[in-house]
Amino acid sequence: MTKKLFSFVLGLTLVLTLAACGSSETTGNEETEGSNESASNGDVKTIRAGIGLNDEHPQYKGLLKFKEIVEAETDGQIEVETYHSGQLGDDRTMMENLQFGSQEVTIPSTAPIANFVPEFSVFDFPFLFPNEEVADEVLDGPVGDELLEKLEDQDLVGLAYWENGFRNLTNDKRAVASADDFDGLVIRTMENDLHLDAFKALGASPTPMAFTELYAAMQQGTVDGQENPFATIYLQKYHEVQKHVSDTNHVYSPFVFLMSKSFYDGLTEEQQEIVREAALEARDYQRELNREANAQYLQDLEEEGMTVTRISDEDREEMKNIVQPVIDEYAEEIGQDLVDRVYEAIENAQ
C-alpha cells in the first residue's frame, strides 16, 4: 500500500508540474506576442490636434477632414486625435504646447500668433481685405508663404491658411451703426495689441480674455460684448446673452494650421508631404463650409431674436479713417516694406 501511495503521489506531482510548466509557457508566449505588437505600434505616430471652437464649427469639421486624409494616406501609420472647445487649452497655451513638443497641431487665428511672430499683425489690420476671394489669393501667395516660413524660428511649422472669416460686433447695450456707437462699450478682444488699440481709437474699452471664459463674462456682465465671425457667434450661443449684432466686417481673420516643428522634423519626407497636402485639401473644404455657415448663421441669429444692424459703406469708411493712425503706427513696427507688399498683393488680386 505504501509503494502504491508513493507512486500515486509521484505521478500526481509530475502531472501538476507539467501543467504548471505548460501554463508558464503559454503566458510567456502571450507576453512575447504582446511585446511584438507593442513594438509594431511604436511606429505609429500620433497627432494631437486641438482647437478652441466647438465640434459644430466648420473649423472642427475641417480638422476631421484632415484626420481622414492623413490616416488614409499613411495607412494608419499616423493617427490624428482631435480635441475641440479648448480641451487642450487656449490658443496661446496650445501654441506653447507645440513649441514644447507636448502637442502636435493647433489652428489659431493670426492675432494670437502675432505675439510670437509680430509680422502676422499685418493680416489683422482693420478693413484690410475687401472680400474672401482677395484674401485667399494674398494668403495663398508669396507674401502669405513668406510669413509662414517665419514660424520655424519659433519651433512651429505653418502648413496652410484656413478661414475664420470677417469679424463682427455683438453687444448687450445698444445697436452699433456708426463709429459713435462704440463709445464706452466694454468689448472682449483677443490678446493682440493691434486689436486693442483699434478699439480704443473707436472709443470702446477693449478687454483681452480667453475665449473659453467669454460666454460666462457676457452672461455676468463683465463685458458688454465681443467680436467674432457669425459662425462662431451662433455656434457658441452668444445670442443667449447678447441682444445686438452688427455686420462691421472690421477684420478678416485667417486661421493658421500649425504643427510642432519637432514633430514635423521627425516625419519621413513622404509623411511630411502627406500632412502638407492634407492641410491644403482640408483648407479648401473648410473654407467652403465656413462661407456657407457664416451666411446662414446671420439669418439664424436674427431668427433667435437678435437685432441685426447693417453698417453702411459710409459709416464703415468712417471707422476705417478713425483707425488709420493705428494702422500707420503698426506698419512702422512691422516693417513698411512688408506692409506695402501686402497692399500691392491685394491690389493685384482685385
Describe the structure.
By secondary structure, the chain is α/β, with parallel strands linked by helices. It has a single domain (45-349), classed as D-Maltodextrin-Binding Protein, domain 2 (3-Layer(aba) Sandwich). It has 13 helices and nine strands. Strands 1, 2, 3, 4, 5, 6, 7, 8 and 9 form a nine-stranded mixed beta sheet that branches. Helix 2 links the parallel strand 1 (45-50) and strand 2. The longest helix has 40 residues, at 2-41.
Compose a concise summary of this entry.
With 350 residues, this protein is an alpha/beta fold.
Q: Layout of helices and strands, plus pairs?
A:
Layout: H1 2-41, E1 45-50, H2 58-73, E2 78-83, H3 91-100, E3 105-106, H4 110-113, H5 132-139, H6 142-150, E4 156-171, E5 186-189, H7 193-201, E6 205-208, H8 214-220, E7 225-228, H9 230-235, E8 244-260, H10 261-265, H11 269-303, E9 307-309, H12 313-334, H13 336-349
Helix pairs in contact: 2-11, 5-13, 7-12
* Helix-residue proportion: 40-55%
Give the overall shape, derived from the CA principal axes: globular
- CATH T-level topology: D-Maltodextrin-Binding Protein, domain 2
Q: Strand pairing plus helix content: what structural class?
A: alpha/beta
In percent, how much strand structure appears in the residues?
15-25%
Number of domains: 1
Count of DSSP-assigned helices: 13
